[in-house]
């Protein structure tokens, strides 16, 4: 099988770094970061992608936050109290918090932030309503005193505290006066930086208004092509770049001006099978993947280890589900690469090859430039499926303006490439993508009751051992009736100029408050 080797040869032109642009080297008070995808919105309730959230984190504060070691620590709040039944959390805010205009930020602003994101009239689909609220059963926020706010839930969930820490806080007086269109483009800061300008498709410029933060300005340049990002880093025009292409690591390390820092990331890269009714009836391929036997067969068709080694430049163990090691189900074995078995299972499922060698035809959509070498990964997967008689039409799309809206509306597919952010602090955090059938992050619209019925059992578990037994059982259901074609946990390669100090995190959170000029 030469599928991946062919793609590598076809992509050798990317090894030649283009000339850097005419951007000048950054001044001492400015940090420049090269990222692959533009923000799609700065409405704090509608942000969904990691690149977008990384920028927004510098504009908006959160009650608590996850530190680089995976500990959940205070940010805008100084303490909290969980109710005995686990269905409410009362936070005490730090004193003297302010909004961008200097107005005091109180519990009223916090309660407003939480309730605004849940308001059905706003029809928000971002991380807060689509993932956090559906996972924790958010039931409303209320003011207790100027510095105390109570977050109410309709159910107990062991990861509620960690998920509440993802909700961006914003300023009531400002946002009550804004249209949704203005909120998306003209955010009012509650954090360390304000949005100075946003040249869509080009750059986002932030200006510091209060501590923490070492640089007065942070410029996020949108550079979709990996080779161009590397060239800009080597030329000294940017200080940090994300998603260094594997074939450019040596060029960066040998440049004398920058180095690549790598970490084992937590993002789950997978191919989703969209089981939405419109896809089930919209095409032969969309209909075929509704069957468990077909989805299992396709697991055997893709050589994930070869993709990791040859397209991503790292050795990987294929995922067995949606949970990061070491919290995964240790009894499950990754599906092996076995194209003969894939063909055998497809025959048995009622999809033999036709006279032209095709079993069925399907569309496979993927972003270009969002994940590490994503376009070539998608093309390789498409070729592997072609090899077993599944005619796969790969459609590569721009991330922010095209792909994200399709994802948010569950209209991508019938097969689609996606990376979902994960964590190491809890199996339940990773599993919360599928917290309910109607969860915003259930992009496949998978409905297996053997999975979803497990959540009440987890909430009722009295010991860690009881909870773990339910988790392992649910992960076995996911494995045997897979809504995903399981791939790998993405490694993260950051290019860092010798001008600055920056240590990457495993969770893809690019927080720059402590980044400084090298001594």
TrEMBL record:
Keyword annotations: Signal, Transport
PANTHER family the UniProt entry points to: OLIGOPEPTIDE-BINDING PROTEIN APPA (PTHR30290:SF9), PERIPLASMIC BINDING COMPONENT OF ABC TRANSPORTER (PTHR30290)
Gene source species: Devosia soli
Cellular localisation: Periplasm
InterPro entries: Peptide/Ni-bd (IPR030678), SBP_5 (IPR039424), SBP_5_dom (IPR000914)
Record's protein name: ABC transporter substrate-binding protein
UniProt cross-references to SUPFAM superfamilies, sorted A to Z: Periplasmic binding protein-like II (SSF53850)
Signal peptide residues on this chain, from the entry's feature table: 1-24
A single GO molecular function term of this UniProt record: peptide transmembrane transporter activity
Pfam families: SBP_bac_5 (PF00496)
Primary subcellular site in the record, as a coarse category: periplasm
